[in-house]
Write a structure and sequence with these properties.
heterodimer, A: mainly beta, Immunoglobulin-like, 4-stranded antiparallel sheet, about 45% strand, elongated, B: about 170 residues, alpha+beta, globular
Chain lengths: ~140, ~170
């Protein structure tokens, strides 16, 4: 048996790891907390995937997500870019609640994402507090 | 034929001799309780439901029962039938949920949960392997594993089993 088949399969497998859909170029803005000045905005790409048996994975472009942080919410469809306002002081976690039609059911996946840097220093606007990518995973 | 296959072949031969009751009613449809479940249907596959009585503890006599009332409930659909019956079960892509089948007589009742079958994965597992020694087998297994991981799970086809047997009475 030649080595061609496993090599082709390996290339296919690696290509399957890449995202299938590009998010719209314009980020969706999460509203700032009332009365608090915005130090900076950070853009986070939110994607959703369906994890199947045997480690298979497919990106979903139809997952509807409600993203909330300290009472401010925004509803989006994945994949999308979220613009998060950063205020001085302690950063709140992002609560993400998504649903997607998978087979006969409306599947649900939730995620609480803690900020990577908990405190925002007004003198340091270069550091990120939220990751560049957040991935929501649905199970088959 | 190698002697070690005999214990496997014997039950298969005996099973082939089982004479099941004739299904006298035409295949029936499920009724949908959720529009999303109906909209997601990719097709239908026929499942034959049969009921049996197990008459002795530790031993299943598999005496087929005719005329047992059963209901089935899935995500967004349901059906009621009298065994033996053929039900046109919905097929889905991406995912499907188990169904619960309940059958009852005046004295007995049985509940069975039946999982759908990922036909895409089943076909991949059943595809023929090439010979070529241990290396060939290992490479084919690796290629199959990679192909399974590389497939799109949203396109996985799910069917319910072609035959579902409900056993009333003493279970093994």
């Amino acid at each position: 048996m030649s080595l061609r088949l496993p090599l082709v399969a390996a290339v296919l497998a690696l290509s399957a790891c890449a995202a299938d859909y590009d998010p719209p170029a314009t980020p969706v803005a999460l509203p700032p907390e009332p009365g608090k000045p915005v130090l900076q905005r950070e853009t986070v790409t939110v994607s959703a995937f369906l994890a199947g048996a045997s480690s298979s994975l497919a990106e979903l472009n139809t997952a509807r997500c409600v993203i909330a942080r300290r009472g401010q919410t925004v509803t989006v469809t994945t994949p999308m870019m979220l613009s998060i306002p950063v205020h001085a002081g302690a950063q709140a976690p992002l609560d993400i609640d998504c649903n997607a039609q998978i087979g006969p059911r409306l599947a649900r996946a939730t995620l609480r994402h803690l900020p990577e840097t908990a405190i925002a220093d007004p003198a340091d606007t270069a550091s990120r507090h939220y990751p560049e990518q957040i991935t929501i995973r649905f199970r088959q | 034929m190698k002697i070690r296959y005999l214990p496997l072949a014997l039950p298969l031969l005996l099973a082939a001799c089982v004479d099941y009751a004739e299904v006298k009613t035409p295949p029936q449809s499920v009724s949908f309780t959720q529009k999303r479940a109906q909209a997601a249907v990719q097709g239908y596959s026929e499942t034959t439901f049969r009921s049996f009585r197990s008459t002795a503890k530790g031993r299943k006599d598999n005496q087929e029962l005719v005329g047992v009332r059963c209901t089935l409930a899935g995500t967004g659909f349901k059906a009621a039938f009298v065994t033996p019956a053929i039900v046109k079960m919905p097929a889905y892509k991406g995912a499907a949920d188990p169904i619960t089948v309940t059958c009852r007589t005046d004295k007995e009742r049985t509940d069975k949960t039946v999982k759908p079958i990922n036909m895409t994965l089943l076909r991949m597992n059943q595809s023929s392997t090439t010979s070529g020694g241990i290396l060939g087998i290992a490479l084919t297994a690796a290629a199959k594993g990679i192909a399974k991981a590389a497939r799109d799970p949203l396109k996985d086809e799910f069917n319910y089993p072609a035959n579902i047997h409900l056993v009333l009475g003493v279970e093994d």
